[in-house]
Every structure is written in structure tokens, then in C-alpha cells.
């Protein structure tokens, strides 16, 4: 394959001479040489020629010197940035390996960053810079540009030189070599199903099967490895990447409404995108009914799953069949449905439900914000609200709830509140976001687990792979020191292997003098729930006192809760809502994970439901889409519209561009704005 060096790229390393984080270094004024007009305009032709040549030479010298000092090449609209040394400090991580910590040169001038000393920076400005660095110390670190190289820089995982972690090269690294051609995407199939899985279709006539997702083999050169967490540990592939068309092309990105698409992505660079429609053609989504498609898929695969016992209204516990999982997407009246939101939820339903043969089922749980709407009055009122707020293709998936409904479900006085910083009502979405999910679980006993999901989350990879691998990994985790491990971030460059991380947690727990958590905790005022009264333990047999190996306690047991952020102890955490608890005689033991996206088991939600009613009667996105975006680099950390505009159709179509962004599977949240026309 032919290749060339990307010396003239307008990619991340081909910057103009403009200020970068954390603040601008204001260069001194260059004094202009005084030229005598009489000499230049004198009568001697030879004198004029020599003088002009001398002047041109001086100007060229000045430009050359200035370009070298600023670290950029000369004579190009967007030159390649010269790699300058960055100050480092070498430290040892917890498993004895050396790690280079970058501590200095953020703007590429080869100097440690300090408060600039010159006549253009006032004392107040110096104080502001110092305050910003004190408040946001991460601004001292150089930027990683490896995320922003395109399709023409893709290399195999074996040949990848990640920009982070990297103890030999300093970030940002030089632009990588580019191929002359855009690679061809391949089908991406993360499913491992047997022959008993029946094909599911988008239409009732069973002529249009759910489409395949596509991916590129390899990743763009210098793609950083994760700073927190591990693809390999969770079983997620990190040797492929997805561009906008391989990810969303199968669901309507890149073609017109007349063809059944969404008129989205037509204004972006699109070379090679035809490969994702080579087998299926451009699918017409105009008349797709996702509720019918999911129901037909489940019926075709019903033989694979546990069924609800009609007498107990609970799933059969003795069945060796598979339990199903609901993905409950939390929305509200007035939510702005964009074309990109539609694409995202088409992908979510197709990949999780239809392509899995009914293993997952997607629902929308919509909050009716108008408390005067009688959502329980009749089906016509319900349908009117749904029709006014949800696109036609998703309307059959929607259930409604409101705060007045929660007061009916959980009536009575809840007792004293320890603290209520928000001042919000206990039945509202802000303080009790799980009340509606508890009611939903009570009304849907056919599911074993429930993912609580948010409208502004996007996964740039296969949704099935993401959800499935999280569940499988969590199932293999032992209960011993589970709470303590779950309270921390796992940082591979610092902790080393997961085993080393686990040992570190154990050592720190012993050194702290605090007893580790094992099973349900007792506390003052704790009341028994039904399973306590009936003598039923929440602990599996592998945790019993006579178990042969207590280190295996909980291994093979489905997790009751999976969160995407650490579950930390709120006591003395400094978190503003740490003491927001209501209805207990004394503060109970509490754990919290910021962001409500999580998977909860049915038995956990039913315990939460009983606990409440029984006793009282928790930039990159738009750039990837192909729109030019400000890179957010400035002395305030990207606020106030700081930075330089990068990306977009003009840049991606430039012959020297590395092409569309191609990213590994990653969860992006929150997505508040999707198009450049919206507020940045």
C-alpha cells in the first residue's frame, strides 16, 4: 500500500500559530528596521536593486527565525509542528515501573510553562493564570492529538504507538504517515449465539433483516490507550475503530429521506461510505415500527428465555434458560428529538434487541412534566401525550409517569430529611429518580435486569458488545472486597494489572483499620424486609461459612448493580448531596455513583420498592460527526468559545487530510448539542 508522510496535514499537529492551553504567551514586539525612503527611491537603479534585495533577505531571515522560535514550519498554510522537548518527572508507579509525568511545555515552545513575564501581561492577569492553574491543574498537561487522526492513518493494533501512555515520546506526537487510500470497513459481529437464535426483521413481512454494524480493522496511529479502565479487562475489542458511516450508516445516516434516510451526514466528507450499504442497500426506515419489530423478535425466540410463572408473577428460578434485560431510556415531555437522536436509538434497538434475538428489550419511560395531566385517566390522553412528544417509529415503546403518580404509589409522610441541598420534593426526578424505575419493574416481571439509560448518551461502537461484556465481567467478580474495589478508579498505567490493583485495595483496607463490607450492613433503625422475615439470604451458596473456597464468594453470580462510575462512601466525602437522606432515625450507610446510568437487578429494585412503600407508606461527538468544531483549548479550559476551529468537510476533503475520525468504542456523555447551528 502506498504511503506518504503527512507533513502538510491540517490535522491536530498541523496547527497555526495561535495560543493553546493553558494561556497565551504574548510575544514581544518585533522592531521593524528603519529604511530611508531617500535611499530606496534614489536615482541609482543598482542602489535600488541592492537595497530591495537586502530588505527582502532581512524579512526572510526574520520570518525564518520567528517560525523556528514558535515551533512551526514556514511557507505552508498549516505547517507541521516541530517536536520540542517537554519537561518531565520520572516516578515509579505502584508496581515498580517507571512512568514519565509531563509537567511543562503545553504550547510547544520547548519551555516550561510559567506565568508570562512581559509588558503586555498585567499583575491581575498573572494572578488569573495562577488561579486557573491552581483550580484546574490538568491544564498544565499537553494535549493528546492521537484521537483526531483519520481513516488514512489506520494501522494494526500490533503497530500502534499510543500517544498515551508513552514513556519515550512526548505529546503531542508528530503526525503519522498516511495511506493514499481510505480502507474498506468490514462487518462487525460481536454476537456469539447458537443455531437456536432466529433472525429478526424490521418489517412485518420479514423481508428486511436487522442490519449489520461495520468497523475498520485497526485504529488510527497514535490513538491513546484509556487513562482509566481497560478494554481488554472487560473483553471489549480495542483493535477496531468506527467512523460515523460505519457506525450509523446502516440506520439512515448519509442518505436522503426520499431513500428512507434522515438527510443527515449529506453535508460531510463521505469517501468510501458506500461499502456499508453494499449488501443491504439503503434501508427505508419511514414505516418501521420498533415496538412491533421487538415483539415479533421476542416471539420468534421465546423458547430461549425464562418465563413468568402465572401463579407467582415472578420468573422461574429453576429454569436454565436465559434471563432477559430491559433497557429503560429515561426521557421527558419536551425533549428535542434530533435526527442524530433517532439514529442513536435505532442503533440501540437494532443491536441490543433485534440482532440479539430478543435478549434485550428497549423501553422509553417518559416523565410528564405537566403535573395537571391525568395520565391515568384514559388511553386517549396517554396516546395524545406520546404523539406530541415522540417520533412515530418509537411511540409503541413509551410508558408515562409523573410526580403526582409517584405520590399515589408512595403516599404518606417520609419523616425528617438529614439534609436537602436542592430543596426539591422527595417524589421528584431530582431526588428520587429511581421511583419510576421501581414502579416499571413491578409492572414488568418478565425481565431479570433493568438498565437505567439516559437520552444524551452515545456509544461509538456496538451497544450489544458494551452491555454484554459489562455483564459478563461483573458476573465473575468475587464479593470479597467488592465494595472497596468498586469505590475506586482502575488506572492501568498506575496500578498495573487488575490483580495488582485488587491487592493494593486489600492492603489499603487493612491499613485503614476499617472493617471491609461483606453482605448487608446493620444500622440503627433498620427494618426487616420480607426476605429477612422469611429467613431468605441475599448471599449465594458460595459465600456460606462451609463453602470450600471463600475467595470465590459471588463468582458466577449475576451482579445486582453495575455502575459506570465508582460507588463511593458519601460520608465525609465532601459531595454536596452526601447527606440527602430521608426517613431514617439515624444516617444509614450510603454509597453513591454519580450519573444514574446503571444496571439493576429485579430483586434489588423490588427491595427498593418495598423499602419505600412498606416503611414510609437516587466535543468530540460533533467533530466525529464531521462538523468543524472549536477544539476547546484556551486558558479557561475551553470555556467561553475558546480554541481554534478544526475538522469539518473542508478539512476532511483536503488532499492532505488524514480523513474522517475513526474512534474505538467509547461512551460519550452528556450530549447536549449536536449540530454546529446549536449553542456550543
TrEMBL record:
UniProt KW Transmembrane helix keyword: yes
Keywords annotated in UniProt: Membrane, Transmembrane, Transmembrane helix
Composition skew (Basic and acidic residues), residue ranges: 639-652
Region described as Disordered: spans on this chain: 634-656
Keyword Cell membrane carried by entry: no
Transmembrane segments: 46-65
A Pfam family the protein falls into: DUF3405
Top-rank lineage group of the source organism: Eukaryota
Protein name, as recorded: Major facilitator superfamily transporter
Lineage of source species: Eukaryota, Fungi, Dikarya, Ascomycota, Pezizomycotina
Amino acid at each position: 500500500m502506498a504511503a506518504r508522510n503527512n507533513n502538510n496535514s491540517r490535522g491536530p499537529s498541523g496547527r497555526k500559530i495561535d495560543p493553546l492551553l493553558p494561556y497565551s504567551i504574548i510575544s514581544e514586539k518585533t522592531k521593524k528596521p528603519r529604511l530611508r525612503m531617500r535611499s530606496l527611491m534614489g536615482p541609482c537603479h543598482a542602489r535600488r536593486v541592492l537595497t530591495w534585495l537586502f530588505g527582502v533577505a532581512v524579512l526572510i531571515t526574520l520570518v525564518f527565525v520567528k517560525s523556528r522560535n514558535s515551533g512551526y514550519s514556514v511557507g505552508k498554510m498549516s505547517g507541521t509542528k516541530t517536536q520540542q522537548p517537554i519537561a518531565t518527572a520520572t516516578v515509579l508507579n505502584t508496581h515498580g515501573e517507571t512512568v514519565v509525568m509531563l509537567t511543562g511545555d503545553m504550547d510547544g515552545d520547548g519551555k516550561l510553562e510559567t506565568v508570562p513575564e512581559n509588558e503586555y501581561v498585567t499583575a491581575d492577569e498573572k494572578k488569573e493564570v495562577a488561579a486557573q492553574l491552581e483550580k484546574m491543574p490538568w491544564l498544565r498537561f499537553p494535549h493528546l492529538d492521537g484521537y483526531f487522526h483519520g481513516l488514512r492513518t489506520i494501522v494494526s493494533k500490533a503497530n500502534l504507538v499510543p500517544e498515551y501512555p508513552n514513556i519515550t515520546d512526548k505529546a503531542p506526537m508528530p503526525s503519522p504517515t498516511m495511506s493514499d487510500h481510505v480502507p474498506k470497513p468490514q462487518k462487525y459481529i460481536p454476537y456469539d449465539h447458537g443455531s437456536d437464535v432466529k433472525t429478526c426483521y424490521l418489517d412485518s413481512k420479514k423481508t428486511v433483516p436487522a442490519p449489520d454494524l461495520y468497523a475498520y480493522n485497526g485504529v488510527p496511529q497514535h490513538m491513546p490507550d484509556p487513562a482509566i479502565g481497560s478494554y481488554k479487562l472487560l473483553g471489549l475489542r480495542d483493535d477496531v475503530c468506527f467512523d460515523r458511516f460505519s457506525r450509523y450508516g446502516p440506520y439512515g445516516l448519509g442518505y436522503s429521506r426520499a431513500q428512507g434516510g434522515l438527510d443527515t451526514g449529506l453535508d460531510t466528507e463521505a469517501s468510501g461510505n458506500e461499502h456499508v450499504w453494499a449488501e443491504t442497500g439503503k434501508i427505508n426506515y419511514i414505516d418501521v415500527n420498533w415496538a412491533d419489530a421487538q415483539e415479533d423478535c421476542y416471539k420468534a425466540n421465546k423458547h430461549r428465555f425464562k418465563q413468568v410463572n402465572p401463579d407467582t408473577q415472578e420468573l422461574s428460578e429453576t429454569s436454565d434458560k436465559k434471563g432477559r434485560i430491559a433497557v429503560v431510556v429515561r426521557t421527558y415531555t419536551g425533549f428535542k428529538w434530533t435526527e442524530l437522536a433517532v439514529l442513536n436509538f435505532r442503533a440501540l434497538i437494532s443491536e441490543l434487541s433485534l440482532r440479539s434475538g430478543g435478549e434485550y428489550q428497549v423501553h422509553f419511560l417518559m416523565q410528564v412534566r405537566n403535573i395537571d395531566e391525568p395520565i391515568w385517566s384514559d388511553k386517549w390522553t396517554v396516546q395524545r401525550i406520546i404523539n406530541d412528544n415522540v417520533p412515530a417509529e418509537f411511540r409503541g415503546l413509551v410508558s408515562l409517569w409523573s410526580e403526582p403518580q409517584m405520590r399515589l404509589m408512595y403516599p404518606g409522610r417520609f419523616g425528617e430529611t438529614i439534609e436537602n441541598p436542592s430543596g426539591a420534593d422527595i417524589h421528584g426526578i431530582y431526588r428520587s429518580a429511581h421511583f419510576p424505575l421501581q414502579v416499571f419493574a413491578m409492572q414488568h416481571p418478565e425481565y431479570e435486569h433493568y438498565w437505567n439509560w439516559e437520552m444524551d448518551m452515545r456509544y461509538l461502537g456496538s451497544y450489544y458488545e458494551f452491555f454484554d461484556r459489562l455483564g459478563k465481567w461483573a458476573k465473575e467478580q468475587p464479593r470479597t472486597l467488592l465494595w472497596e474495589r468498586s469505590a475506586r478508579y482502575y488506572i492501568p498505567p498506575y496500578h498495573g494489572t487488575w490483580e495488582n490493583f485488587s491487592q493494593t485495595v486489600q492492603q489499603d483496607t487493612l491499613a485503614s483499620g476499617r472493617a471491609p463490607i461483606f453482605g448487608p450492613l446493620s444500622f440503627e433503625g433498620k427494618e426487616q424486609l420480607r426476605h429477612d422475615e422469611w429467613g431468605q439470604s441475599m448471599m449465594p451458596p458460595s459465600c456460606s461459612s462451609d463453602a470450600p473456597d471463600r475467595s470465590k464468594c459471588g463468582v458466577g453470580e449475576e451482579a445486582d448493580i453495575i455502575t459506570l462510575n465508582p460507588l463511593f462512601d458519601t460520608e465525609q466525602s465532601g459531595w454536596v448531596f452526601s447527606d440527602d437522606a430521608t426517613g431514617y432515625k439515624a444516617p444509614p450507610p450510603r454509597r453513591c455513583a454519580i450519573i444514574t446510568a446503571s444496571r439493576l437487578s429485579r430483586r434489588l429494585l423490588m427491595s427498593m420498592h418495598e423499602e419505600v412503600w412498606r416503611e414510609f407508606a437516587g466535543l468530540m461527538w460533533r467533530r466525529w460527526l464531521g462538523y468543524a468544531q472549536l477544539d476547546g483549548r484556551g486558558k479557561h479550559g475551553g470555556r467561553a468559545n475558546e480554541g481554534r476551529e478544526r475538522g469539518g468537510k473542508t478539512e476532511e476533503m483536503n488532499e492532505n487530510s488524514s480523513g474522517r475520525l475513526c474512534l474505538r468504542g467509547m461512551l460519550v456523555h452528556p450530549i447536549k448539542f449536536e449540530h454546529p447551528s446549536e449553542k456550543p
